[in-house]
Structure formats: C-alpha cells, structure tokens
Amino acid sequence: MIRQKQCVVKHNYQTKHKTKYWNLPNESYPRKNWSSVIVWNNSHPKNNILTPRFITMSLGKYLHRFSWLDDNDIGSVDTKWNWLVGEYGDNHKASILHYTLGAPCFNGFEKYGHNDIWFYYKNKANNIKQ
Questions:
Q1: Which residue, of 13, 34, 54, 84, has the greatest Cβ tally within 10 A?
Q2: E strands along the chain, which residues?
Q3: What is the rounded average pLDDT for all residues in the chain?
Q4: Number of separate domains in the chain
Q5: Whole-angstrom Cα distance, residue 105 to residue 58?
C-alpha cells in the first residue's frame, strides 16, 4: 500500500539576508522553511517516531529539517501556500504570506513588502469584539 506523504513548500534557496528579526543570524540550510507550513500525514509509518518524549529530546534543527524522513516521503505544494516575504518578490496572489525575516511591525522590516495586508489583518483582529 502506498502511503500519502506529508506535504510542504519545498523552498530551495539561499537567503538574501544575513540577519532577521532581533538581529538574529539568518543562515541557509537544507530544507529551510519547509516546516513553517505542513500538511501532515499522521498515519505515515515513519511519523510513529514522533512521540512527545522524542520531540522534547530532539534538537530543533533535527525536527525542522524532517531528518527522520527521506525526500521521497515529503510531497510538495505550490509556493503560494508559503510565500517568503523579503526572500521572494511581491506576490499578490499568494495564499499564505510568511514574514520569515520579521513582521512589518518591527522597525526596518516594513521595507520587505505586503505591509498593507499585515496591518489590515492586525487592525481587523484588534477590532474584534469579545
């Protein structure tokens, strides 16, 4: 039986920026930003390793890089589902904007684009009556 794969946007890029929010280093590495939007297949046999204890004891880079999975265990979806603002150009047809370098509310990050969308939803969320 063929099992369905977990699916991600398979970003394959070298970052254009040496730092990100709070002046943290922004390094390129294999499978960078793949884990930021995931469609999981919880029944995939290789995911049985993912117990709460295993996750707690694992390094973040092991988990973010899906190190327990082979490339053929991971399917792909279109980049519009995880558009990297500031790394890629503007895309007004993107379905998910990922402010991976820093959100426009941080000084200096408003230059990366799509600010209007971010502030629109921030203001909309602030106006929700509780």
A1: 84
A2: 6-8, 19-20, 24-25, 38-39, 74-76, 83-84, 97-98
A3: 92
A4: 1
A5: 32
